[in-house]
Design brief:
This protein is mainly α. It starts with 19 loop residues before the first helix and ends with a strand. The chain has one domain: Ribonucleotide Reductase, subunit A (Orthogonal Bundle), CATH 1.10.620.20. The mean pLDDT is 96. It has a three-stranded antiparallel β-sheet with strand order 2-1-5. Strands 3-4 form a two-stranded antiparallel sheet. It has helices at 20-40, 108-128, 139-166, 168-178, 202-223, 229-266, 275-280, 286-301, 310-317, 361-387, 421-427, 435-444; strands spanning 49-55, 64-70, 339-346, 349-356, 475-476. Bound molecules: fe (ii) ion (2 copies). One fe (ii) ion binds at residues 122, 152, 155, 216.
Length: 479
């Protein structure tokens, strides 16, 4: 069944009506979800109509419809990509066997853990972003953060469906817990570090959606080839939504850079490191943008887990979590005799060391992520070329500012030089924004609600959402 049933409380294309037990479990979870959404979702905007897209199918073309909706009435649904007949497991020790429709008993605990970790990130980001509406630089941007938020909510539904359908009582308990943890909470934090960081301002939001949602893409893509078919089909559809989140991030930062370079050119500021000059005219200076990149990129790299990991080897071997674009990789997809080069600390230096490829699955996924981020940097740097400003932004070294993995115990500069701990702390603000930088960014965050108008620190987007004109009212704030 691939038609989406929109008549029922929970829109779905999984024939929920035929599974009464599951339907009851999800319907019991629904009001708790709504409670969570109303308390932890976008603060202060629950009653306004927002121009949102809602998934109404899973076809690559035309899966969404756009229209005004109040967020608590958004139709969060359960949507899986169509089942592929005859699909076989593409990697690991079960390579060539038919994919599993049920949870293989031996991998139950591993799969549950993978689903819970992925599931936990979805509500976490909604919590992190809940105050951003109050300082939106335009109605266009306000609509975009809300769109990202409702889709992260849908991603939570996607994971909760898997837990409730396939993991019995354990799954139901995990589904409850997903609504109980809180981003940044001391007693009950979200599972992963980056999802407990604050997202207090819009530059942080654009960096988060550029880098951290891109980690999400990498993880989802590795699940999209999972030998456990329900996970593969669920994440395949989630990926189609993730594209917009990364678009919001990439173009958001691009628009900030555009505006900053305009301010520089309009005011004869030729030194790209002139912080005071740019701030005098209300822009976000280039060194601060670079420092925000350094922060969000490094905390996101931690999400990939330890570079050398037996857990990752096990979930690959088991056929549960693949590499990025697994089917396109030209090797035996089992890796028992292969090695992979990984950056490690050896003899007080960062060196590239060949390790058994199976243990380096996380390092490889991080490599693919880094490649993807490099492409984003190229796009951002085009703005400087177009504006005639001799500056470029870059990614810091992968070992910079890491709390997880090979580099957790060393202190590394943005260029990849290991330095003594004391020196690193003394020089920290060469690479990371200081409190006063962050306060300056916060001071710029003022709500702009006139349709078609943008805050001074960001330029207008090239095009509207769904072809809408520049002064379109994306959020109806007037009652
Ligand atoms: Fe998500
Ligand atoms: Fe996302």
């Amino acid at each position: 069944m691939s038609e989406v049933d929109y008549a029922s409380l929970i829109p779905n294309n999984v024939d929920l009506a035929s599974d009464v037990r599951l339907q009851r479990a999800l319907e019991a979870w629904y009001p708790k979800y709504i409670d969570w959404w109303k308390t932890m979702g976008p603060e202060g905007f629950q009653d306004y109509e927002v121009y949102l897209r809602t998934a109404v199918g899973v076809d690559p073309e035309g899966w969404a419809k756009f229209g005004y909706v109040r967020m608590p009435e958004y139709r969060w649904g359960i949507l899986l990509a169509p089942q592929e007949q005859g699909r076989t497991i593409a990697f690991g020790q079960h390579k060539g066997e038919p994919v599993w429709q049920d949870v293989p008993g031996e991998y139950r605990a591993m799969l549950r853990r993978l689903v819970v970790i992925q599931g936990d990130t979805e509500p976490a980001s909604v919590e992190q972003q809940r105050f951003l509406g109050q300082t939106a630089p335009s109605l266009y941007d306000m609509r975009n953060v809300f769109q990202v938020n409702v889709e992260e909510g849908r991603h939570l539904w996607a994971m909760v469906y898997l837990l409730q359908k396939y993991f019995g009582r354990d799954g139901r308990e995990e589904a409850e817990d997903l609504l109980l943890r809180r981003s940044g909470d001391v007693d009950r934090p979200r599972i992963l570090g980056a999802f407990n960081e604050a997202t207090p301002d819009w530059l942080s939001f654009f960096m988060f959606t550029t880098f951290t949602d891109r980690d999400g893409k990498m993880q989802l893509e590795s699940f999209a080839n999972s030998g456990w078919d329900p996970l593969a089909r669920t994440t395949r559809f989630m990926l189609t939504e993730e594209g917009h989140h990364m678009f919001v991030g990439r173009t958001g930062v691009e628009r900030v850079i555009q505006r900053t370079t305009e301010i520089m050119n309009e005011n004869g500021i030729t030194d790209p490191t002139d912080v005071v000059g740019v701030r005098k005219h209300g822009g976000i200076d280039l060194p601060t943008i670079q420092k925000k990149i350094n922060f969000h990129y490094s905390v996101t790299l931690d999400l990939f887990g330890a570079e050398i990991s037996t857990n990752a080897a096990n979930s690959f071997n088991a056929g549960l979590k693949a590499r990025f674009h697994e089917p396109r990789i030209d090797d035996d997809h089992q890796l028992e005799n292969d090695t992979y080069p990984v950056a490690r600390v050896a003899d007080g230096q960062i060196q590239i060391v060949d390790v058994p490829a199976l243990t380096a699955i996380n390092a490889r996924l991080a490599d693919d992520f880094i490649d993807d981020c490099e492409k984003v940097m190229k796009r951002w740097n085009r703005v400087f070329q177009a504006q005639g400003i001799g500056y470029s932004l870059s990614l810091p070294h992968r070992a910079f500012n890491r709390a997880v993995g090979e580099f957790a115990d060393v202190f590394v500069t943005d260029k990849g030089e290991i330095v003594p701990e004391g020196e690193w702390h003394d020089r920290k603000h060469e690479w990371l924004a200081s409190d006063s930088d962050l306060e300056y960014i916060l001071s710029l965050m003022q709500l702009q609600t006139t349709p078609g108008k943008y805050a001074n620190w960001i330029s207008a987007p090239r095009a509207g959402i769904n072809g809408k004109p520049g002064d379109f009212e994306y959020v109806k704030l007037a009652a």
